[in-house]
Amino acid sequence: MNIIVFDNLPSTNTYLKEHYREYPDFTAIRAIHQTEGRGRLGRVFIDDSKQILLSILLKESISPNHMNLVTLFTAQVVHEFLSEYLDNVLIKWPNDLLVNGKKICGILTESIYSEKFEAYIIGIGININSTDFPEPIRDIATSLKLETHQTYEIEMLVNKLTSRFEQSYPLFLKNPVLTTSYQNLHSALINHSVSYQYEGKIIEGTVIEIAENGTLHVLSNQKDYYLNSGEVMLIKTKASIER
Ligand code: BTN
After folding, report:
1. Ligand 1 pocket test: which of 18, 20, 53, 142 has the largest number of ligand atoms within 8 Å of its C-beta?
2. Nearest alpha carbon, ligand 1 atom 2
3. Is the pTM value of this prediction over 0.85?
């Protein structure tokens, strides 16, 4: 993968949104510092310059059939990558990776339309050498260093992660449903009680599985819901309960 490194950007996702025409498919934009890193649902992604801050551009290679699974595929790739160093990583559908219940990675996928579909931008933020997080996330974030007590060379990790993405991508295109099986094996949510804001109402229920189309299957008052990642906000999860 072609990796372009910037010392400083407001946000690698925003940069690619503005410049995607200038770059070929499978370009990765990496920033050492980000001043306006963005997360899902308008949240900020705090930068301490000790993270992987990366956005991958997908253009011709992505077909509309695979779009809603591409975030799940990315979470799979990051999970495989982190599992080389840690043995207790879980995926919190649709876009976070957790270690011992704390967030180590967030993924923000954005699409660009200009009359027709143009591109996908997959933003990945992974806490690598961070040791001290600011107050709002202090108790809910972790890093590779905090978990393993080692310091990592970020450039080497970026090369490993992007190679893994590129190597696994053809298989994903051939059989996208495989990524939902992977999610189900490593999900932080299955059998957990969750509460989601969905179409203006609160759905409280138990997570059954990640369905083949990438939606989250929740059972609430004996009714099945298939939640789409773009439409829901997780309000809370409770410890594991019996189904
Ligand atoms: C989330 O936690 O909701 C998603 C966080 C995604 C953060 C990454 S960092 C690189 C890329 N650029 C951004 O502005 N956001 C993503």
Report:
1. 53
2. 106
3. yes
